[in-house]
Amino acid sequence: MRPDFSTVEALNAWSPGSLAELFGISIVSIEEGRLTSELVIR
Fold this sequence. Notes:
The structure is a single chain. It is built from two helices and two strands. The model has no long low-confidence stretch (mean pLDDT 68). Strands 1-2 form a two-stranded antiparallel ribbon. It is an alpha+beta fold and 42 residues long. The protein has one domain (8-39).
């Protein structure tokens, strides 16, 4: 079963917190063919 990556919320909720915790990456928007994220430097 493929994860639902159609919304920002779904993408950020997938594998809870791993992108944010491990890499400091937060997905901010999803457009046709483009995924926008921000890198949080701690």
